[in-house]
Structures are given as C-alpha cells and as structure tokens.
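Give me the 3D structure for Secreted protein.
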Amino acid sequence: MKSGFWNARLLLQGTGALGLAALLLGFPARGQTREPLEGSPQYSCFEATRAGGGAVSETLAAQLCQGARSDAPAQCFRRVQAGGFLSDPQALQLCQYAMPSDDPASCFLKARTSSFLDESQLVQLCRPPIAEMLKMCPYGP
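Predicted structure for Secreted protein (141 residues):
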C-alpha cells in the first residue's frame, strides 16, 4: 500500500491537477497516452468506416465497430450506403456485428430486388445472428 501511495505522489509531482484527475478516473496521465494497438479489429473497422467516404460521423463509426472482429461491418455499411437505400440508423442496425462469413449487405441487396418486403423487414431478415441474440440481453451489448 505504501508503494502505491508513493507512486501516486511521484505522478502528481510531475503532472499536477491533471495527473490527479487522470489517476482518479483511471486514465493515463498526460504524456502517457497509449495508441490503439495495430491490428485491433475494432480500430481498423473504425478507420475503414471513416476512410470510406461520405459524411460518416465518428460517433456512428464507433457504434458500428463496437465489438467488431474485422472490418466487415465497415465494408457492409459502405456497400448498403452506396446504393442510398438505407438511412444511417438502418445501415447501422444491418451491419453492426457483421462477420466476413455472414454477408448482410449481399443478403439485403439480393432480397431487395427479389421481394416486396420493406427496408425495415429486410434489415431484420439479413442482420447478423449475434444482433438478435444481443436483443435478449437485459443490459444491452
């Protein structure tokens, strides 16, 4: 316990009030920020979403890539947005949690041309299976 106190005291001497706030909130102190890990699937998805063109906000990109295991959600989102068929919230609902093995964009685009279902029904039909399972969680994803 004593060494933790001295470590905190040394941290505070060099950084002042910002260091104290960082220590209390669990953030790294100034000068100690950590870059996202190279190869982090969520971060690569986030970057792919933002780099894909269009006016995708950082907030939307972050929501889309939450829990991503690849950049498949970003690819899905770009494909359905290129056609202009879905609003951002619908595209988010369709593409969030997408994996390379379940291609919700292809499902949506094929079903759109061969059925009379409306977009919201097609989104429900084609969204990744994990999205449906997460709806059953009482506290959300």
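Helices lie at 2-25, 41-51, 58-65, 72-82, 88-95, 104-114, 119-126, 129-135. Let me know if you want a second pass.
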